[in-house]
Model the fold of this input.
Amino acid sequence: MKYYPIIWITCAAAVGVVIGAVLLREPKNVSPARGHVLTAVSNPMPETNLGALRPGTTNLADMLPDDPVQLLNYGTELLLMGKYAEAVELYSKALKINPDDEEAHFNLGVVYARMGQTNDAIKHYEDAIKIFPDYPEAHNNLGNILVAQGKTADGIQHYYLALKAQPEYTSAMNNLGRALAQQGKVTEAVHYFQEAVRTDANYVDARYNLANALIALKRNDEAILELNEVLRQKPGFPPAVNALARAQKR
Done:
């Protein structure tokens, strides 16, 4: 079956991780280069139909054919419009047609996470993984939720599984680094931040996190190099400006 799933990183709202006195950042937005793409929707529903939808619509699924491909595509389009209830309706109908569709489970995990219904999101990510154990995005998203809930060790295991399935998955590297830093394993965190930057030299948040981890390890000269590169890529970025000032004083 070919269709276009949503691939999105679920994050708690901008939670900072402190290593000593150093703040690490989790990216709010993820670039397509890091593998988290809101893919284009094929055969989109006519614009007039989408524009007429209102929150609480209950008969939308009945308007569409029993075609999981179209249901997932339209559900994705609705999610992008912020029409979460309608997206759930279409993804759920796709699952009724094919209960073993890991993409439908994954997409439901995404939309429930955006709605703040984390227990439902966890359930559907876990269901997706049961069907497809090597699903890197599902492991990564589930890891993010678990870490946000304080279940850092469990989240870390899912990041490892995400990287086992997709070794150059830079967002999982960055998230794993952050989780290890939460546990005080800063040297291990540096390794994963470095790997993320090696894989994607333009991954500003991972490079910023790397610099702050280096500061925590008193490797200030290395941190200054990384922060200068952050500011080259993102001029005036306030957290990097402040971190650079701290590193230069040490």
